[in-house]
Amino acid sequence: MADAIKVLLVDDHIVLAEGVQSLLSSVEGIEVIAMAHDGAHALTSIDELRPDVVLLDINLPDMDGMEVMEAIAERGYSCAVLALSMHEEEAFITGMMERGAKGYLLKNVSLEDLCDAIRTVHDGGTFYSKQVTQTLMDSIITRHRVPGKSDAPELSISDREKEVLQLIMQEHTTQEIAERLHISTNTVESHRRHLLEKLGARNSAGLVRIAMERGLVG
Questions:
Q1: Starting from the edge strand earliest in sequence, which strands make up the sheet with 30-36, in order?
Q2: What residues make up the domain containing 178?
Q3: In terms of pTM, does the model score above 0.90?
Q4: What are phi and psi of 7, to 5 degrees?
């Protein structure tokens, strides 16, 4: 049996942190090894306990989550960080992404998605809440408009294409996307081609990179 994924919870809201810990305690293969309620305690815990995954709030009493991310990078810790925040604004999302966060979850996340996110980033992937992906998509659409030409056609991405893009961002294969959305692999590939054309990317791996180059992150 594989070792459980070791998780550190970092949140200054003690009741919320204890609630998350209680929920995860019933999940096989995931173990909350400690909780920290400020940035300094978080960094000490990472150094001493070497968690696999850190669930990191952005609002902390002594430093914010972005400063904690910078300290993690400076010290060379190998843990994967998932932001767990009430903030769904683009600045917070891209700020954490820029600093190395492997995912971004809102605090209304379901237990199923939380567990999926923990497992995904532990395995080297990325994971974003649906609302977070929507925020990034809206920003892509806004930044893709031609300035000064009010009659220029706006980039139109269908709801289904948004769903496909979200799963691509989470590094799912064509077969996995087809199974999740109950569509054929040919349909998935058709949506992927449309997204590549609309966003000006050359391949699937470039979709997120192209979005960033257009101004989603610094």
A1: 30-36, 5-10, 53-56, 80-85, 103-106, 127-128
A2: 132-216
A3: no
A4: -120, 135
